[in-house]
What we know:
Elements: H1 14-23, E1 31-32, H2 49-61, H3 74-85, E2 93-99, H4 100-115, E3 120-125, H5 129-137, E4 141-146, E5 148-149, E6 154-155, H6 157-164, E7 172-176, H7 189-202, E8 205-210, H8 219-232, E9 235-241, E10 253-260, H9 263-280, H10 287-296, H11 299-326, E11 340-342, H12 347-357, E12 359-360, E13 366-368, H13 377-388
Parallel strand pairs: 1-12, 3-4, 3-7, 7-8, 8-9
Antiparallel strand pairs: 2-10, 5-6, 9-10, 11-13
Bound molecules: 4'-deoxy-4'-aminopyridoxal-5'-phosphate.
Amino acid sequence: ASVFSGLAPQAPDGLLALIGAYRSDPRPDKLDLGVGVYRDARGRTPVFAAVKAAERLLVEGQDTKAYLGAEGDVGYLEALRPLVFGARAQADVFGVQTPGGTGALRLAAELLAAGRPGAKLFVGAPTWPNHEQIFEAAGVTLATYDYFDAASQTVRFEAMIAALATAAPGDAVLLQGACHNPTGADLTKDQWRTVADLVAERGLFPIIDLAYQGLGRGLEDDALGMRLILAAVPEALVAYSCDKNFGLYRERTGALFAACDHPQRLSKAGSNILALARANWSMPPDHGAAVVRTILSDSDLATMWAAELETMRQRLIDVRAALANHGPDLVALKDQNGLFACLPLTQHQVGRFRDDHAVYLAGSGRINLAGLTVEAVPDFIRAYQTLRQ
Ligand code: PMP
């Protein structure tokens, strides 16, 4: 019998279909608010100048393409430490380079499944849809906590806490560190403290996904929630991505960090993470991590990179402010972070946005603010308000 015929057909990625439809739309004022990459005011996703400079150094200086180990580029991991963990630089952390934040999440999922078979993982509703697929593919059972109310544009914090209070000791919770995808709504410092206390008190295992450091409130502030959680618990995982904050997307540049205050447990976690990495991809791709290492270990390049990142962050803030100014029901967007916001639109309204106004967004109502310019905001708001009438 055919192996292939036993397979259930899988739906294609919705956002990729959206790209195709957008490309073939002839309307000149069309807007692509679908795909989740940063774009400048001219609609481009340029390579950072700091990345180009680092790449030139690598072309000249890299003298071998021989294998690195399963942990990847150790210099990259060392260079990330102060950026991610701050002045403490977290001696009690083990790191491994991964193919993107996605690879880090997949390893986290497999480590959880191996270390605590049958554990439940609480994910936010909503969250990045791939979270569910990644953890389910590794055999992890999912539960949800309410996270966001699109109509009022607020975090449903009490409902979130109530859901986490039902978790059994040993269950895991997935938290997004900053620039929440898809809502843009992050926890306040006080809310992070409350979650950290709850997670510690109930003995939950936190997995923190930090994929947009520097695009929200700034490099330090975007790490704050994660650091509060790490300070409160005996062990945790951090899935990190450099794909947005270094603009490296297709280079697939990420890391998984295990934090643990117990040296033997940490070394057990480390050896298992390496074994899982070997079984998944043996070794991660080199280039993106080599670029990040080169940038972060050269103070001129690091300064250049931070300035470019800050320009992106400011542009997102400007678009948020313009949306808040023009749309009374979008005022909350200016206190949210990162690339995304979730508009309270039905699937039908999303379809009409596309058909009547040439505005393309995900079926969930998620928009990528980097697809807008400050100048395009008034027209966008007019169309949005027409739809909502
Ligand atoms: N986590 C979140 C919340 C994301 O939005 C993304 C990317 N869309 C990732 C992780 C994965 O990032 P990467 O492209 O580095 O795999």
